Amino acid sequence: MLSVTQERGVIPKLKQDVMRKMIEQGVRIDNRGLNDYRELSIRVNVVKTADGSSLVSLGNTKVMAGVKVEVGKPFEDTPDEGALIVNLEIAPTASPDVEPGPPDENAIEIARVVDRAIRHSGFLDFKSLSIVTGKHAWFLWVDIYVLNHDGNLVDASTIAAVTALMSTALPRVELDPAGNILKIDRSVRSPLKFNTDKLPLTITHVKIGNFLLVDPTREEEDLSDGVYITGIAGGDIVAIQKVTGAFTKDEVNSMISNSVNQYMKLKNTVMNAMANPQTDLKL
User: Fold this and answer.
1) Are 113 and 202 in contact (CB under 8 A)?
2) For residue range 254-271, what is the model confidence (pLDDT) as tens digits?
3) Could you tell me the CA-to-CA distances from 224 to 56, 181, 242 in Å, in that order?
4) How far apart are CA 281 and CA 160, in angstroms?
């Protein structure tokens, strides 16, 4: 979940002590360095009924995103643009403390962070989604499903949403002279227009004692004293979210600087995965 569950009793006291002592020595309990991400795996086009989809594994955290495109009436303040709508659900089977039912406030907050990072990045050409100004435009519905929650849902969800969008293609639309839609031909498609120079990603840090760690596991989130998320596109900061805790000015500057460095490494991993996509899984 986005918020830190400060139930220290969930992690046995002995394990908490071991985790803290290891962190003080620059090593985490899974043998990563404080500044290391877990292994990232990306599969695209995994949902045959979606217009674009992706399955992302970040360590043991697994997130799936699907995109459905629909024609809608553009908003009055952006008559020549399409729209993006991001929703997220955490499956009850993803974690013991997730209850069945509609998305809770944590899921809604994650969706908002992902939406903000994509929307303000310049990654998507929203004007290219216009069909007839003021009348018809493509709406991109991005539905994110957390299948297994082992920490850092925001970064995994952002990667899943972005790579699902990168695998999305728009159907051909046939219009009459008056601009009315005659036919939507889903057998003929054109790729969604996006700018990979502005690829949006989020970098999540947690604070444990006096130390800052990236890509926290669920146990590290539970143990942490604060969570800070930075959304980056290209070299620009496009979103910031302090979830919990207090950070000094030096800590914030350190996290933002480190996020820029982490972004470049993470972007290369994502782009390499998209250049050689794994597509053998079909749901």
Assistant:
1) yes
2) 999 999 999 999 999 999
3) 24, 53, 13
4) 15
Burial of 272 (0-12, 13-18, 19+ CB in 10 A): exposed
At 73-90, the pLDDT tens digits run 999 999 999 999 999 999
Q: Distance (Å, rounded) from C-alpha 226 to C-alpha 206?
A: 6
User: Residue 248: CB partners within 8 Å, gap ≥ 6?
Assistant: none
Judge contact between 223 and 282, C-beta under 8 A: no
Sign of the four-CA dihedral 244, 246, 247, 252: positive
Q: Which amino acid is at 13?
A: K
- When pLDDT is averaged across residues 107-132 and rounded to a whole number, the result is 96
Confidence of residue 278 (pLDDT cuts 50, 70, 90): low
